[in-house]
Amino acid sequence: MARTRRFDRLRGALLALLAVSGLLTSCDSQFEGVRLRVAAGFTSGVYNNLSQSLATKWQEQLAIDRPEVLETSGSPDNVNKLLAGEADIAFSAADVAAQPTNRDRQPRALARIYDDYLHVVVRRDGPIRNLADLRGMRVGIGSPESGVAFIAKRVLAISGLSEPGTLTLENLGLTASIEAFKLDKIDAFFWSGGLPTKGITDLADVLPIRLLDLTDDLPPLRGRYPVYNSASIPASTYRLPGGPVNTLVVSNFLLVTDKMSDDLAYALVQGLFDARPELAKTNPAALSIDVHSAIETHPVPLHAGAARYYRDHKI
């Protein structure tokens, strides 16, 4: 009798194991044949760093080929590729992602990832104290088709500095801007990134810098473009003179389109949050990834599959 009960227990355990195995096989085969491309910015950037880690996690978790990480120029290029069907997933700053589009595909958010802070870098001992002082100067505004150039042009336009001949604009990425700044080939440059941005930290180690405080410019900028927020960069971030520097903040989103299936979007979000420890090792910006703030993607709607994930997790 005891042997029969023991056999029944073993048989029950075996059946349960087979059931779980069947579930796992079903889950693994759910996305069989799915191939994904991630529009991820330039190779040394935060978007690309995070994309590489996420590609590995998604490969393991969804049992698919490792997603292809595409090098791009930045947010505008990422969104263009996404909406053109040349990428399936994209990182983008919220201001770029929120641009109206009449494409067949529409952007949908999986999550808010982290925030970028606008830096306008000048020499500490120079004459530039506010945006108006940039008139007649040589200014780096980011590489073409980058999120930095997108926000820089908006800021300059609101400040009355967008007319031809008002200043000399140089389309330089961060590394090129820093080198040109060191060589006195430009007087200032724009950057939008997390805190601290290593390139600017390294610059501050060899050259005294100042960040322009945008307190007086924030009301018209945020009035025209509500997608932006405001925040302060602590002086200690780059050993800046004086107190904290008020500036614009823009969120970064992980995007797909409305053509993606709900189940795949759900699985991608699950992979994102499961990958947080690895992402944090990849880049400190990932420490900001939080399941509660991830749903704050206005004005870009959450994908229905992502929304289901957050509902299932009581968010």
Automatic annotation (TrEMBL):
Q: Name one Pfam family in it.
A: NMT1_3
Report the InterPro entries cross-referenced here.
Answer: TRAP_TAXI
Q: Which domain of life is it from?
A: Bacteria
Question: NCBIfam families attached here?
Answer: TRAP_TAXI
This one is known as: TRAP transporter solute receptor, TAXI family
Q: Which organism is it from?
A: Actinokineospora iranica
